[in-house]
Amino acid sequence: MKYRRLRKYILLFMIALAVIFSGSSSYATSVTPDTDAEQGLDGELTNVDDGVSVGLTLNSNSDETTLSGTLQILLVITIISLAPSILVMVTSFTRIIVVLHFLRTAIGTQSSPPNNVLIGLSLFLTLFIMSPVFAQVKTDAIDPLNAQEITQEEAVQRGLVPIREFMINQTRQDDIRLFMDIAKMDTVDSVDEIPITVIIPAFIISELRAAFIIGFMIYIPFIIIDMVVSSVLMSMGMMMLPPTTISMPFKILLFILADGWNLVIGNLVNSFNF
Length: 274
Prior knowledge:
Strand content: 5-15%
Oligomer: single chain
Shape: elongated
Distance between the termini: 56 Å
Radius of gyration: 31 Å
Order of helices and strands: HEEEHHHHHHHH
Largest sheet: 3 strands, antiparallel
Strand order of the largest sheet: 1-3-2
Number of helices: 9
Mean pLDDT: 77
Number of strands: 3
Helix content: 55-70%
């Protein structure tokens, strides 16, 4: 079974190599008279038979257009492979998923809601929060690029502007200054002079800080319930009964009565500076 699977992988790899290198060279055979045998041939093998010359021509097709198309394909594949990381690093996804994990841990339900539900909810909340930014990127960069009004380099520069503004609005100045000092950058005259390599890590640690602050605020009422339940169990002499077994239903009840999902999601979305 392993040998068959390995053989399939080798076959797929060979097919991929054949597709990649198929455009780099092309072979053509031509039958021409002797008088035209020297026109347009890079290499020629001639066999004279009754005045007919048989030429074997090898033409290279590695011009700038083919190279540019190959680089574009590689760029697209690279962006697709890095899309999850880009989504996590430059959007609101980090803060949302960290807060939701804090919420689940504070309630005490280890696997409810499951990770798939939390990640899906985080993705849709990210799309909701980032929709104005994505709309501006589409208007300023994607639509002019599709209309062939701007080049790809200009489209990338225009598309980064709304994302930069979003990240800067959510990033503390102390965090930006930290990475500017690490990069040994002097004082800049405007925000536009700050490189994206400084903004992204500063944005990430600012998001983690905000998520931990929200997580701490979520923990406080549930810790109070744990302390009350533990004190009651100790006063009753029930040392062998785990306090979490008794406190978890009360925490779930408190979360339901307070309409916890509405409060957490509403305040989490409003915590972003639009």
